[in-house]
Amino acid sequence: MNLDFTPEENAFRDEVRTFIKENYPAALRKAQDEDRPLTKEEYLLWHKVLAKKGWVAPGWPKELGGTGWTPTQKYIWSEETARADCLPILPFGMSMLAPVLYTFGTDEQKKKFLPDIYNGDVWWCQGYSEPGAGSDLASLKTKAERITADDGKEYYIVNGQKTWTTLGQYADWGFFLVRTDPDAKPQAGISFLLIDMKTPGITVRPIITLEGGHEVNDVFLDNVKVPVENRIFHENQGWTCAKALLAHERSGIAGVARSKRNLEKLRSIANTERSDTGSALLTDAFFRRKVAELEIDLTALEFTELRTLAGESSGKGPGPESSILKIKGTEIQQRLQELALEAVGHYGAPFLRDLSGSNAGVGPDYASGLAGDMFNGRKTSIYGGSNEIQRNIIAKAVLGL
Amino acid sequence: MDFSFTEEQSMLRDTVASYLADHYDFDKRRAVISKEPGWRPEVWKAFAEELGILGAPFSEELGGLGGGPVENMIVMEEFGKALVVEPYLGTVVIGGGFLKHSGHAGAADLIGGVIEGKVIFAFAQAEPQSRYNLAAVTTTAKKDGAGWTLNGQKAVVIGAPFATHFIVTARTAGGERDAQGISVFLVEKGAKGVTTRDYPTVDGFRASEVYFENVSLGADALIGSADNGLPLVEKVVDEAIAATCAEACGVLRKLHEGTLEYTKQRKQFGQPISAFQVLQHRMVDMFINVEQAVSMTYMANIKVTDDAERAKAASAAKVQIGKACRFVGQNAIQLHGGMGMTDEMAIGHYFKRATMIESAFGSVDHHLARYEFLSLGKAA
Question: Could you identify which of A337, B230, B243, B283 might form a hypothetical disulfide with A377, taking C-beta atoms 3.0 to 4.6 angstroms apart as the criterion?
C-alpha cells in the first residue's frame, strides 16, 4: 500500500506535461480564456491533436486505438489534462457510443463508425431522454416500425421526440433508443439505432437553459427512415446496450482532477476578495471552514476513486459503486460553484457576457460567468441518472435491498 | 501507486479476524466489561503468544513483524469490528510510537516487553482543562539532581487500570499553553506518589484519573528531548489518530451491516422496512459515509509516515471519520427503532464506541481548525 509513482510513471507524467505544453492548440486556449461559447471547429481542435498522437481514446481496447495505459497512467493523464485546463474530449462518440459499438456492434458497424469517432470526423449526439422519460428511461415512447420499402430493403420508420440532446445542434449522427415492440415490457421492447442527423424528418430545436446558454436541444423525428443495418445488437434488446453505456457514463463522472483545479481557483479568488472586516476572505472563520470541509470531502472522493481504480487494475471493473463517485463528485462540483459565486459577493450579479466573453470592465474578470456556471451546474446531479436514481442503484445492486 | 495488501498483511487480517470470531463474540464481551477487571489478560497473552500481533509495527531486529502504520490499521479495523477493549492503541501504537521515534536508551527492552505482552502502556496526556490542545499541560516535572520530580493530574487516561507504565506529558518550562517547555516521561505505574481513580467509560473501556504527587523520576525517564517534546507528541498522536480511524472503519462497517440486516427482517405495514425508499436512501448515504471513511483511513495511514503531509492527513481523516461516526451511528439507531435503544442489541454498543471515537484525540471542530491552519494559513 503506497502512493509512490514508479520512475516510469514519473517519466510518463513529464512526457504528458511536455506534450500538452507544446501541442495544446493556441486558438482553443484563447477561446477558453475569453470564456466564450466555442465553435464546432474549436470543440474538435484538441481532439484532432490527440487523435494524431494516438492518445485520444485511453478507454478503448488497445487493438482499436486505445493507449494500453495502466490505470495509474490513465489517472496521471486525467490529472495532467485537468491541471492544464485542457478541454475535455466530447464524450458522445468517444466514451458513450464507442464502447457500445465495440461490445455489441458487428464488424461492419465497427469498421464503418469507429475510425470517424476516433478521428473526430463525425460528431455524435445522444437520443435517450424524452419529454416523458427522464430518470425512468425505459418508459420512452419514440417508436420505430419496421417496413420493407419500395427498394426492397428493410427500414425503421421512426416517430417521436427526444430531448436534452447536448450539442445536438452540431451533430452529424445520433444514437437513439426507440421502441420497436410496443406490447413488450418496457425494457424488453427497445432497440438501439444509429441515425444520420441529415435524414429528412429530423428537426433540432434549441432549448435555452436558465443561465442563457444553448447547450441542449429538442430533437423531433417525423417519419425518419433508418436502414435496419444501423441497428446495434438485436432488435428489442437495445436496453442491454443502454445499460452498458450508462455504466460508462458514470465512471469518470467524479471529475476529481477538475475539481482540484477549481478548488485552486476558488482559493485564489478567496485570497483576493475581502471579508467584511477587510482581511482576505480566506481568513474569514466562516468562509474558510466551508473551503476546508470541501477540500477534505474532495480528498475522500479522490481516494475512493483511487480505490476504484485499483479494483479495476486488479480486473474487477467499475461496478455499481461507481455510483458513489457520481453522487459525491457532482455534489462537490456544485459546492465549488456555489462557494465561488458566494466569494465574489456583489459581482456575482452583473449579466454582461456576450459572444466575445467580455465582462465589459464590470467587476473582476474571475467573477464573470460564475453565476452562470453555478446555474448550469445544477444539471450535474440530474443528468446521467439523477443522484436519487444512483441511490436506487446502490441500494439494489450493492446493498441488496 | 498501490492499494492492495501484501500476502503477509492479508494473513495478519485473517489471523486477527478468526481469533476474534472464536473468542470475542458480543455476549462474551458484554459479560467481561460488566465486571472487574473489565478486560481479559488471557486475551492479551494470546495476542502476544498465539497471534504474535503485538509486534506488528516493530522492526524484525526488535522482534517484531517488520510492519508499520498499515499493519496497525489492519489490526485496529478488526478490533473495531469486535469492539476490542484490550489496550493495543495505548501500548503498541502510542507507547510503541514514542519508543520507536525517540531513540530512548531503553526502547529495545521495553518494545521487547510490549511484544511479549508484559509491558502495557497508557497515555497520560489530557488534563482536566486541556481540552484537545496537546500543548495545554500544567503537570510539572521539576529538575531534581539528575532526574525530575513530577506533580499534577491527568484526565481520562484510557486503559490506565491495565497499564504497567504511563507515558506522561509534563511541563519542564514555559507557561500553561506554550508549545515550548513540554517533555515526555516514562513513569512506572507502581512508582511512589502515583495514585489512580479507576472507572469504566460509557463505551465499555476502562480509564483513570491519574495523580502524580512528588513522583521521583530518574534521568532515564525522559523520552525524547527535554523542553521540546511537543513535536514528538504530535507525531505519535497523529499515528494514533490514523489507527483510531481504522478502528472506526470496523465500527462503521458493523453499524451499517447490522442496520441492513435488521431492516430486511423487520416487518411493518406488511413488508420489510428495507423496502421503503426513504430508508434505502438513508442506508445508501450511510454506505457512502463508510466508504469515504475507509478511503480517508487508507490515505491517513499511507501519509502518516511522511512528516511533511502527516498532520494535514491525520486531521483531514479525523474530520471525515468524526462526521461519519455521527451520521452512521445515529442513523443506525434510528433505523433500528425502539430495538436500537436496548442494551441487549449490539448496535447500541457500536454506536457508543462510534460516539466516543468522534472526539478521541480531538473533535471534528478541533481538527477542522487544525486543517484550516495547515492548508489555508492563519485565520484573521
Answer: A337
